[in-house]
Fold this sequence. Notes:
Helix content: 25-40%
Number of strands: 22
Strand content: 15-25%
Strand order of the largest sheet: 13-12-11-14-15-16
Structural class: alpha+beta
Radius of gyration: 28 Å
Number of helices: 20
Amino acid sequence: xxNIDDPKLTAYALGELDExxxxxxxxxxxxxxxxxxxxxxxxxxxxxxxxxLAAEKSEGLTSQHLTAIKxxxxxxxxxxxxxxxxFAGSVxxxxxxIVVVLVATANNRTAAPKAVEVSAIHVPAxxxxxxLSKDPQxxxxxxxxxxxxxxxxxVSPPLPVTVAPAKAPGQAGTRARDWKRKFxxxxxxRDSSGLMEVEGLPDVLxxxxxxxxxxxxxxxxxxxxxxxxxxxxxxxxxxxxxxxxPFMKVMDHPLSTxxxxxxxxxxxxxxxxxxxxxxxxKGAVRIEEMVNYFDYSYAGPKDDVPFAAVMDITSxxxxxxxxxxxxxxxxxxxxxxxxPAGNFVFLLDVSxxxxxxxxxxxxxxSMQMLVRELNKQDRIxxxxxxxxxxxxxxSTPCDRKEDILAAIERxxxxxxxxxxxxxxxxxxxxxxxxIKGGINRVILCTDGDFNVGTTDQGSLTDLIxxxxxxxxxxxxxxxxxxxxxxxxxEKLADKGNGNYGYIDTLSEARKLFVKQIGGTLVTVAKxxxxxxxxxxxxxxxxxxxxxxxxxxxxxxxxxxxxxxxEIGAGHTVTVLYELIPAGDQVPASGVDxxxxxRPAQVTEAAKSGETLTLKLxxxxxxxxxxxxxxxxxxxxxxxxxxxxxxxxxxxAVASFGMQLRDSQYKGAYTLDAVLELxxxxxxxxxxxxxxxxxxxxxxxKSLGKIPEPQK
Length: 711
């Protein structure tokens, strides 16, 4: 049995342990209900305090606050210690120390810098050389400061949080007079490991105080940018690294093969960041999801096939000597009256990490919006999960919408996140109510912070892959900021025969659940793969823009066992290639010429004048055998200004994505050029999505942090 006062338990509950230590604690918790309950209590308290403090009225930083911050700096001993050793007192009190200082700045990005006043909550002090006495009751020790700051989490880049003490300087005791003088001395002696301690305070708290002192000195000297950097909220969002597709020589690599993608989460997520006044990390910028966020007026199929192809080749706007190829498909529409009956299971994360205004409240409003759009033939069940999972609404027909809406409204957040258990139960409920020939779908709403049970990404994706074979599809919807596990959520959607969206506003919920409900819920084809073959007589080299995490081997195209993406009713998928014409100089590959062989010779078909051939493979939603479609195209030499508005707008979005990434392939285009192109190609824009894009480009330009192309 674990000791519930063990400081490791607190450190685990607050996410402070490394992966190895956390795994050890998780193993022990499985057989110790009392300790598991203690962890739940700590997390619940943390969530409650975070929400309550977010609602506190903020006041401007005063000169008294600046002075107090300096005077509350504490000297450090020179010995090292593990962080959790100093949490020898009450588990709940230790949790409160860290949580109580979170500052809500997310809703006030453009306002003047703010600091939040909080009452002091003190860590019990340990016996030390300079006289602070041990206080197991958690009362204020002699000479303790009037306020604290949250520790810096181990994330990259670190986003610190600051707080001003509630009491005036001078009330911290006579020892405070020496702290300011000692501060600079201590800073010089600090070790980069961040595991020293300061008079009973964990050194990570002292390190945050040091950051506060430094950044507020900058503010006093007029460095408002330094202050803004110090007042961003705690951030542990996770994104995969993206390695851009390079140019490929056609003679060496004539085939480009990848899985289709209709996810849109990346665009909605980076919109949230830009509106908050910050550029997204490069790993958050998936260009294909940006391009496919928008509606395009492509003609749909006229026969029994689920797709129609739309292709065009023009000059490339950011590299005029190159060509830009658009390879696009349009899925067939399904009218609301023709939509088959649906068996939906809402799988909702109600853990403590969802206890924020832009998480569970937005989840509830979004799901209620979807419920109102469903028909009487549809059924809804609801599974929730936190430390454990449970069925809060059995499969209920939608002629009882008021009961369903009320069940959603009653949800509240608290506890840890056992996503694996929730997934197991949701698929079990979906299977029990399976509708043959209907829509069977689990809709997962979460920030992706799975921290109990099955937690690692590999095990979760294996679980979803197995469940996808049951014929139940998956929609994954991400919510919130500061904790979004984008990498995990994208992979779950990919492996679950589903789509991945991010909901930052009710307007985005309306786009997914009202405007595009058919594409969100109705799958018209699964395991959709694209393979483009380039003619070496026309194209020397090509580069696929985006789709980096969707690439397949050329052998995978004809392998029906290889999983790929899904297409929803009415969806459009736009793919852009930058081409270097045959005869033009090709970027060096860095590979020596072969000694024993030469590239294959061209065939007679190379003389046909075709530039490329698009091949599509897909399966019916309930099928196991793929079908093949093929579409060739010739380059007629069209200049980019002659391209249709849809292609021009898609090119503007792709160029913007490359500039957000600071891509080596962004060419001569600037944000001004993107703005000019997007404005001219905006078109009718009935829903205002393109106008919103233009505002985002303007926002990015105003930040002044995107490097200009080199002359």
